[in-house]
Amino acid sequence: MKPGINNYSEIGKLNKVLLHRIGDEIEGLVPDNFERLLFDDIPYLKTAQEEHDRFADLLRENGVEVIYYEEETAKALQDDKVRREFVKKFIADSDLYSEAVKEGLEEYLMSMPADQMVKKAISGVKKSDIIIKSNSLADYIDAGYPYHTDPLPNLYFTRDPGACIGNGVNIHHMSTEARRREALLLEYMYKYNKDFAPEGTHQWYDYYHEYSVEGGDFLVLNKEIVAIGLSQRTTVVGIERFARNILNKSSFKKILVFDIPKKRAFMHLDTVFTMVDYDKFTIHPEIEGPLQLFEITLDKNGEPRFSSIQDELSNILKLELGLPVVDLIRCGGDDPQAAQREQWNDGSNTLAIAPGVVVTYERNYVTNDLLDKKGVKVLTIPSSELSRGRGGPRCMSCPVNRDDL
Taking Cα atoms as reference points, which of 31, 42, 48, 27 lies closest to residue 151? Predict the structure, then answer.
C-alpha cells in the first residue's frame, strides 16, 4: 500500500475510505423541506445508523481502514484561528441576511470544541439552540422556519463533495445550495489535516470554482483514463477545468465525457454505470444503446484537444480499455419492472473493494444474483432506511487509497 492518497482505478483493493455515519441531520427532514434538502422520504435514524455501521464493519472485515467526515474535519480545526476562519465561511455560505444573526452564530459555534462544532454544523443550528434578535425583513418573514443554518442530510453520500483521483483531491463546487457546504468540510480536511492529505497532495478542483461538478460523475477507469458524466449536476465548463488541470499535472492522459440524460433518475454517472471487475460493469439498460461521448486529451503544446465518439457502450469500453470483450451486467436483468425497481434502489451503484468483489444493497436481489452468476463476489448490506436517500454503497463512500493494479 502506498501512503497518502492513491486512487488509480475503480477496482483496486480498497485500503482506506472516507464515510459519514448518518446522524441527527436526518431528523431535520420533514415533507415541507424535501425539495429544499433534496430528499423524497425520511429514513428512520436508528435503523439507518445500524445499517451504516454494518456497511463500515463489512469494509473493516475486508481489510479497509474506515475514517469519518466528522472526526477528520475536527482534526483540521484544532487551531482557533483556523476554526474561526472555517466558521465564518460556513456561515457566509448558509444563506443568511442579518449581520446580527451571523455574529451570534459565529460566537455560538466558536464556543464549542472542534468535534462538537463540526457535529452541530452538520446537524444544523436550530433557532431554539440560540435566540438571536434581528431587524432584517428576510429574517422576520422566515421566522417560522426552524433553522438558522440548514442541516446537511445528504452528507452520508460522501462520494459527491469531493473525489480522490490519482494522488490528488477534487473539492467540488456542488450544484445545489443544499449540499454546497459539505465540500467546505473537505476543503479544511485537505488544507489542515495532514493525516488525510500529506504534503505534496495535489488539488485538481477547488471549492471556489464557480462551475459545478459532483463526485458521483467521476469514475477512474485506469491509471490513464478518467470517465466523467456530463449530467444534471456536473457542468461542461467544470469538466474542462478539471481536465486541463489533471492532464497537465498527472499521469492521466484522457478524459472520457459521457453525455447522460439530465434527469433525477440519471442524477450521476455512477447511478447508471459502475465498474466491478477488469472487464465487467453494472449498467442501467437505458444506456446500452448508442452513446455520445467526448474525449479530452492534450496536444504537444499541452492544450486540450477534443473529439467525439458515438457507439455502443461495449464497443467504447473495449476500445478505450484495450479489452477483447466486456461484460455489461444489466441492473434487474431482462425484466423491465425489476430493472426499474432495482434502479430506484441503486442496483447499479456497486462499490468494488477488490477486482470482482463488490458491496451492494441486499434488496437488489435480481442484480445481485446476476453478478454472482458472472463470477463476481457479492457482499450485501441491509438498506431499508439508507436507500431512502436514493444512493447506494458507491454513493456512500469516498475511496482514499487503493492498491495499484
Answer: 27
Short-list 322, 218, 248, 283, CA closest to 10? 218
At residue 134, the pLDDT reads 77
Give the predicted TM-score (pTM) of the model. 0.94
C-alpha cell at 259: 453525455
> Which element (helix H / strand E) includes 190?
helix 177-192
The CA–CA distances, whole Å, from 372 to 28, 30, 358, 378 equal 39, 39, 10, 6
Is residue 239 within 8 A of residue 163, CB to CB? The reply is: no
Length of the chain measured in residues: 405
Q: Which three cell numbers stand for residue 304?
A: 486540450
At 300 the pLDDT is 87
Helix (H), strand (E) at residue 259: strand 254-259
Walk me through the domains of the chain, giving residue ranges and CATH numbers: 14-21+37-68+153-402 (3.75.10.10), 71-149 (1.10.3930.10)
Q: Which residues pair with 163 in a beta bridge?
A: 170
- Residue 57 backbone dihedrals phi, psi, to 5 degrees: -65, -40
Give 144: exposed, middle or buried? Use CB within 10 Å, 0-12, 13-18, 19+. exposed
- How far is the C-alpha of 183 from the C-alpha of 189, rounded, in Å? 10
Q: What is the pLDDT of residue 331?
A: 81
User: What is the Cα–Cα distance from 121 to 114, expressed in whole angstroms?
Assistant: 10
pLDDT for position 265: 59
Cell of 206: 477547488
Residue 175, CA atoms < 13 Å, CB-side half-sphere: 21
Determine how many CB atoms are found less than 10 A away from the CB of residue 323: 13
Interatomic CA distance for residues 134 and 78, integer angstroms: 31
Catalytic residues: 395
Number of helices and strands in the chain (H, E): 12, 19
The whole-angstrom separation of Cα 367 and Cα 348 is 8
CA distance 199 to 1: 18
Give me 6's grid cell.
492513491
Chain centre to alpha carbon of residue 307:
28
Tell me which residues of the chain have a pLDDT lower than 70.
262-266, 339, 342, 344, 347
CB atoms within 10 A of CB 55: 26
The pLDDT assigned to 266 comes to 66
Write the single-letter amino acid at 183: A
Separation between Cα atoms, residue 88 and residue 102, nearest integer Å: 8
Q: Is 165 helix (H, G, I), strand (E, B) or coil?
A: strand
